[in-house]
Design goal:
Layout: H1 13-44, E1 57-69, E2 72-84, E3 90-92, H2 106-117, H3 122-133, H4 140-158, E4 169-181, E5 184-196, E6 202-209, H5 215-227, E7 235-238, H6 242-247, E8 255-258, H7 260-270, H8 276-287, H9 292-309, H10 311-320, H11 335-338, H12 342-355, H13 364-376, H14 391-396
Parallel strand pairs: 4-7, 7-8
Antiparallel strand pairs: 1-2, 2-3, 4-5, 5-6
């Protein structure tokens, strides 16, 4: 028997699809209405028509409400009731399952926000969701309100209490975004802090749009973190930017690891093209040594050799000093994660990839809010660092002392 192929335009398939959608909507509608009835019954302390001493009010009929769900718009019956207060007065029952002014389910709002974070504007969001949800409750203003909640979340996150958040390692770096300011598109830095918790999981700790990467800007961000209760980490992993170097002095106890990739880039800029391969091999002997002792010997040998061959290269290495070797003081399984700011660079790369379709942002808050949303709502997922299993043993040695 030959196979039968059905297209979506087949007259048999279309009625079947419509019937399935209708059955699905009916099932969801019945379930939600039953949940609402049970919620009201629990609040009143009795079932319908039941008379008990524990009764805390009475039912007050019902009204209909049009709700947009993930399977389309539907009209449902919402029960009403009056709850008795301690002073003898009554108040209208308010459902937690279906808040009074809700016109969309949370999953619909999450879908709208997810498409927005993927780079779509209001028109594209409506086009993407119209086949499923129709045009109800998807106006420009409705979508703007959903996006507005993201701004509220971000505002609360920026000022949150950090006394309960502890990070053994902090990565600090900046990325640049294009923002429209005074009728011109300019590149502005976003200061970013990524933390590693006691379980090795990376978490976004801070995002702040700044005028520059000057020490005053970095210092303001660090002061904000400490003011809100953030404990000093064990290790700071940073690049060699002068403003950041000065600002990090606010922390006294943490050790500092200079990014070995950034330093190699600096060395290459000071090295003649014909000598770059040799210089890179010598540098790799420092950062890929078997242990800290071998790394320090390779460091000293590099300085002696390149002080003669190319003094600017030697001076650039000495500028970073032994902060290039700090990672050797930590468990070997963690070396790969600790010797560079790649954990934050990877996040920055994802930021750039997700935001390049935007061209430029209309406002500064819009730019940084979008970056926050990409992480907070799972568009960008952060994983644990390499060697995270060694974190427990590291922390047992003391919060401010490396193993």
């Amino acid at each position: 028997m030959s196979e039968e192929h059905f297209s979506t335009s087949d007259p048999v398939v279309i009625p079947l699809r419509v019937e399935l959608q209708s059955l699905l909507r009916g099932k969801i509608l019945g379930t939600v209405e039953q949940i609402l009835e049970e919620e009201l019954g629990a609040a009143l302390g009795c079932e319908r028509h039941e008379r008990t001493e524990e009764r805390r009010g009475y039912r007050n009929g019902a009204h209909t409400r049009r709700i947009t769900t993930e399977v389309g718009a539907m009209t449902m019956r919402v029960p009403r009731g009056r709850l008795q207060r301690a002073d003898g007065t009554t108040a209208e029952f308010e459902s937690h399952v279906l808040p009074r002014y809700a016109r969309r389910t949370r999953r619909v709002d999450e879908a709208i926000l997810g498409i927005y974070l993927a780079g779509a504007n209001t028109r594209r969001i409506r086009q993407a969701l119209r086949p499923l949800l129709g045009d109800e409750h998807l106006s420009r203003s409705a979508i703007s309100r959903v996006v507005g909640r993201l701004k509220e979340h971000f505002g609360q996150w920026v000022e949150r209490d950090l006394t309960q958040e502890r990070y053994a390692i902090l990565y600090l770096d900046a990325l640049n975004l294009k923002v429209r300011l005074a009728r011109r598109v300019v590149s502005v830095p976003v200061l970013a802090v990524l933390g590693v918790g006691e379980d090795g999981q990376k978490q976004l700790v801070a995002l702040q749009l700044a005028a520059s990467e000057a020490s005053a800007c970095w210092g303001g961000l660090i002061d904000s973190l400490r003011r809100r209760g953030l404990s000093d980490p064990i290790l700071l992993v940073t690049d060699g930017h002068a403003g950041l170097r000065k600002a990090r002095e606010t922390w006294v106890t943490p050790k500092v690891q200079r990014c070995t990739v950034h330093k190699l880039q600096n060395l290459l800029e000071h090295c003649p093209v014909h000598a770059r391969a040799e210089m890179t091999r010598d540098y790799n002997r420092i950062v890929n040594a078997s242990d800290g002792i071998a790394g320090r010997k390779a460091y000293d040998a590099f300085v002696v050799k390149w002080r003669t061959l190319c003094p600017p290269v030697a001076r650039s290495l000495e500028e970073a000093g032994i902060e290039l070797l700090t990672f050797y003081e930590f468990p070997k399984a963690m070396w790969k994660s600790l010797r560079t700011t790649n954990a934050l660079e990877n996040l920055n790369r994802e930021f750039r990839r997700r935001t390049k379709t935007q061209g430029s942002f209309a406002t500064e808050p819009a730019a940084v809010t979008l970056l926050y949303g990409l992480v907070a709502f799972g568009q960008i997922k952060l994983r644990k660092i390499d060697g995270h299993k060694a974190m427990k043993g590291l922390l047992e040695k003391g919060w401010t002392t490396a193993a």
